[in-house]
Amino acid sequence: MRRTACMVIVLVTVLVTGLLVGCSRPSATSAALPKPTAYGAAIVESSGGKQTAEVGTLLTQPVVVQVNDQQGNAVTGALVVIRGPNGTYLDPAAGLTDSSGQFTTNVSLGTITGRYQLVASTTTKTGKSVELKIEEIGLGYQEMLGSALNDQYCARCHNQESTPQRVSNYDNLEVKPHPFTEGDTLNKLSDADLTAIISHGGPALNKSPLMAPYGYTLSKSEIQALIAYIRMVSDPPYGAPGIVYAQK
Amino acid sequence: MRLPDRLEKLRQLFFGDIVRTFGWTSLLLLLLLAVAPAKHFFADWHRYQRGYERLISKRSDAVTLRRHFEPGIQQIWLPEMGVVDRCTTCHSALKETTLKDVTTQPYRPHPVIPHKPEEMGCSICHRGQGAATSVEEAHKSTLAWEEPLLPAKYLESSCGQCHQQDLKGTPQLNLGRQMLSQYGCVHCHTIKRPDGSVITGTDDPPSLAHIADKTTREWIYAWLKDPQAYSTTATMPNFRLSDDDARDISAFLTSSSTPASLKVVQASLDEAKKVKDNAALQTKAASLYGESFCASCHAVQNAAGNLVGGNVGPELTKIGSKAKPEWLQAWVRNPHDYDPPTGMPHYRFTDQEVGELTGFLLAKTDADLLANVHLEAPTPDQIAHGKRLVNDYGCASCHEINGIKRPENFAPELTKIGSKPVNQLAFAPGVPHTLYDYIGAKVKQPRAFGPSLKMPQYTFNAAQIDALVNALLSHDERALTMPAAKTVPALPVSHYEPAGKAGQLINDLNCFECHTINGRGGDMAPDLTWEGSSVQREWLVQFFRNPNTLRPALIRRMPKFNLTDAEINTLTDYIMTVYQSPKIDRDSMPLAGYAPGQVELGKQLYYSKYGCQACHIIDTKQDKGYIGPTLTHVGSRLTAAWIYGWMKDPSMLRPGTQEPKRNMSDEDARALTAFLMSQKGSEKQEAKKR
C-alpha cells in the first residue's frame, strides 16, 4: 500500500517537472540583450524611413539609425532596441552600434495595410531612454495595384526623380503636378474630385489639360486602386483623425 | 460501518424506490443534455460572435451592421472548387467597409481584392482548414496532411494557382516565376503548368562542345570555383566544388572539347593587339562600342563599381581574362558561326572594326582572377573523374557537352511542390516544420539539408527567396484540379517564323531579342506586328541606314547593323507587305495636301484642348515633353491612316501603351492628323540625313 502511494507520488512529480520544463523551453531561447560598451545621448535616423512595401514583405532598404553623444559624434557600442507594431519582424531587433555609430536592421512589415511606426531607442549613461520614431508604409493588394499603375502611367510626370529606367518629365511641364506624397494639397481633394480629374483630365477641375483623362484607358477599379495608393502614401497622412497605426 | 454497508446506504438513497430512481436518472440525463449547449456557449466562435456584437453596438451604424450580422455557424460551400469554409463564422465583418479603422482580428473588413468571399471562399487563397470551427484548428493545424494558414508574404502564390499570366498586383509572384526560368531551375526540375505545358528556361546556357576554343582551362577552373567572382550577375550557381573536383572537371571539359570552325582574320587579330595596349586607340574603340549600342544588352562595371548597361547578354567587365583573342574576333564578326541559336545579332562589321572591338574588350581584364590558378597537364584519371563529376552534378541538364547525354528528370519534379505533405519532407535542423519554410530554406542553402546533396548554392537575397517561394507554392494540387472555367491559362508560346530571305535576315539580326512580332519576341523595343501599316516606306529605309532614336528618354537604342542596300530593301519590302494591321487601311488617307484650315485647327487642339506637348516635342524651341516620341518628323514617318487610328484608340493598335485614349470626335482626330502630317521636319535636316 505504502509502496504504491510512493510510486504514485514519484510518478506525479516526474510528470509535473517534465511538463514545467517542456513549457518553459520557448522562453529560455529568447536571446538576452547584448551588453552595451558605451552610451549615447541621442538617436537619429540615417536611412530607411518612409519606405513603401507590400504588407508582409521585407522593406527593400534596411533601416539604419545612428547613436550620437552630446557633441553629435557617433558612438560605437551603444545598445539600440527597435520595436514595431504587432506582426512586424525585425532582424535583428536589438544590437550594438558599429564602428560608425550605426545600427542596421532588416524590417518585414506585418499583415495590415497602413502605416507602421517603428520605435528605436537607446539608453543614456544616466539610464534614461531616448527614442526615435520611424514610419513605414504597408501596401495591400489594392494599393500595390495602384502603385504598379502609377509606375506605368503617372510617375513620369508626378515624380520629380529620375531613375535609370525612367527619366522624369516633371521639369518639362509648364504647369507642375503634385507628387502623390504631397498630402497638404491632395488630402484636400475628395475621392470624387480625384476620380474626376483622373477620369476626365485636368479640365474637369478647371485645371490644365496637360493632365490627360484616363477614364477611357483605366477601369473603374483601376482608378480606385490609384486613389487608394495616393491616399496611402500621402504625407501628412490622409483621412481618419490622427494616424491609425497598424496593430493587433 | 464497513464499506459495503455504506455503499448499500448510498444505493438506497438514490435508487431506493422507483420515484427516486426516476428523479435521479432524469437529473443525470438533463446534465448530459446540457453539455451540448454549454460546449456551444464556450466555443471559440461563439465568444467571437458575442465580441463582434459588443463591438458593433458602439458604432454609429450599429443598426445596419446588426442587420448584416448572422449569428451561428456560417459556411461558404463551393463544391466544384472543393471549398467548405466556415471562416465567416468568426470573421463577421469581412464586407463591412465602415469598419475600416478596426484593426483587431477577427473583426477587420477584408482589404479590397478583385474576388468576393462568396465566389472564392477563403481557404483557396489563405489555405488553413476551412471547415474547422476552432481558432487553433483553422489556422495552424499541426496534423501532417493538413495545411496551416499562409503568412501574408506568400499570399500571392494563391493567385498563381489560377492565373498563369502575370498580374499587375502580384509583383512577387511575377518575379518568382521569372526567376524559375532565368536562373535555370527548370533545366533540372520539371515544372508543368495545369494546362500541361512545361515551363522553359530563358537563360540560354552556352554549349560547352567547343569550350576550349573560347577560353582557357584556368578560367574554367576559376569560374567553377566561384562564378560570381568573375561576374556578379552570373546566373550560374556555385556548386561548392573542392579544388580537386574543379581541376578534374576543367580537365574533362577542355579534353572533350572539339574545334569549332572559327573564321580567324589575321588583320583583325593584329588590330586587336594594337588597340589592346594603346590608350588613344582604346578611346576610339570605346566610341565604336558606344555607337554600336553594345551597352543596350551588355553591362560593364564602372570605376564606382556600378554596373552600367543591359542584362540581355553577359556582363563584360572581365571578358579579357576569359575570351581567347581568336575566338573573340570571330564572335564579334558573326556570333552565329560559333553558336547558331545565340541571341546576339550579326553586325556587319569590317575586319578593321572587328579588330578594334576585340582589342577594346581584351583590355577588360582582372589580374587577380587567375593569379592563383596553376594547373598541371591533366592525367587520364583526372579526366575520367571529371567526367564522372559532370554526370553526377547533372551539368548536361543545362549545357551541351560532348560525350554526355542530357539527363532526364535530373532533379525531383516540382509540379505539385505547393501541396507536398509536410511529413514527406526531411527538414534541416532549425527549419520550422512548414512547407513554405522548407522551400525557403532549401532555396537559400540547399546543402544545409545534407552535404552530399547536389543542388548548388545561389546568391539570392531575402526578397528573391520569398518571390521564389511564392512561385513554387502556386504549383499545387488545387491548381491542377481547378475547373478550367475558373482559370486564366498562360499565354500560348508563339513559334512565329518570318519567311524567305527576309526571315533569314530577321533571324541573323536577332530582331526578336528586342522586338515582338506576332506574339514572339522581347519587349525592349516596339512591337512590329503592324509596322507596315504604321510607317512610310522611305522613312523605314532611312531608319535602317541610320537608326537615330525616336524617343529621347530611352537609354536602350536600336543599333546600326551596317546593312547593305539590298538587305534593307528585302527587309523593308517584307515589313511593308506582311506586317499589316487588318484594322488600318494605310492608303485610306493621303500623306499630304491637307487644307491649311484643318492644319491650324489641329494645332490648336494639339496645344490647348489635348495638351499633347506634355509628352511630345514638335516645336523644339518651346516644347519639352519627354515621354512619347519626338514628332518633329512624324509627317514623313507615319501614315495618316495610322495616326488617325491612333488618335481614336492607341491601345487598340499597341496594347499596353502609355498614351491614354481620349474618346476623340472624328473631326478632332482628322484635324490632329492633318496637323501631324504637316510635320515633315526641316528641309535642312532632311538634306543632311540624305
> What would the CATH topology of the largest domain in chain A be?
Immunoglobulin-like
Tell me the greatest interface. A-B, 51 and 40 residues
**CATH fold-level assignment of the largest domain in chain B:** Immunoglobulin-like
Rough shape of chain A?
Answer: elongated
**How far from one another are the termini of chain B?**
129 Å
State the domain count of chain A. Answer: 2
Poorly predicted regions of chain A are 14-30, 241-248
How many E-type strands of chain B?
6
Q: Approximately how much beta-strand content do the residues of chain A carry? A: 15-25%
Overall body shape of chain B: flat
Q: What structural category characterises the helix and strand content of chain B?
A: mainly alpha
CATH architecture type of the largest domain in chain A:
Sandwich
Strand order of the largest sheet of chain B: 1-2
**Structurally, how many domains make up the residues of chain B?**
7
Estimated share of beta-strand residues of chain B: under 5%
Helix content of chain A: 25-40%
> Regarding CATH, which class of the largest domain in chain A?
Mainly Beta
Structural class of chain A: alpha+beta
- Using only CA atoms, what is the Rg of chain A? 26 Å
Count of individual helical segments of chain B = 33
CATH superfamily name of the largest domain in chain A?
Immunoglobulins
Report on the structure:
The complex is a heterodimer of chains A (248) and B (690). With 248 residues, chain A is an alpha+beta fold. Chain A has helices spanning 2-29, 141-158, 183-186, 191-200, 220-233; strands spanning 42-47, 52-54, 63-68, 79-83, 89-91, 94-96, 102-108, 114-123, 129-139. Chain A is built from 5 helices and 9 strands; from the N terminus they run H-E-E-E-E-E-E-E-E-E-H-H-H-H. Chain A folds into 2 domains: 13-139, Immunoglobulin-like (Sandwich); 141-233, Cytochrome Bc1 Complex, Chain D, domain 2 (Orthogonal Bundle), CATH 1.10.760.10. In chain A, the strands form 2 sheets. A 5-stranded mixed β-sheet of chain A has the order 2-9-8-4-6. Chain A has a 4-stranded antiparallel β-sheet with strand order 1-3-7-5, with no helix packed on it. The radius of gyration of chain A is 26 Å and the shape is elongated. Chain B has helices at 3-15, 18-42, 44-57, 62-68, 117-120, 123-126, 135-140, 156-162, 171-182, 185-188, 211-214, 217-225, 227-230, 243-256, 266-276, 279-291, 325-333, 335-338, 351-362, 380-392, 435-444, 462-473, 477-481, 500-508, 531-534, 537-545, 565-578, 596-609, 634-637, 640-648, 650-653, 666-677, 683-689; strands at 76-78, 83-85, 299-301, 307-309, 516-517, 520-521. Chain B folds into 7 domains: 3-41; 44-149, no CATH class; 160-202 and 411-486, Cupredoxins -  blue copper proteins (Immunoglobulin-like, Sandwich), CATH 2.60.40.420; 211-259 and 372-397, no CATH class; 266-362, Cytochrome c-like domain (Cytochrome Bc1 Complex, Chain D, domain 2), CATH 1.10.760; 500-578, Cytochrome Bc1 Complex, Chain D, domain 2 (Orthogonal Bundle), CATH 1.10.760.10; 586-689, Cytochrome Bc1 Complex, Chain D, domain 2. Chain B has 690 residues and is mainly α. Helices cover 44% and strands 2% of the residues of chain B. In chain B, 33% of the residues are buried. Chains A and B meet through helix 2 and helix 5 of A and helix 22 of B.
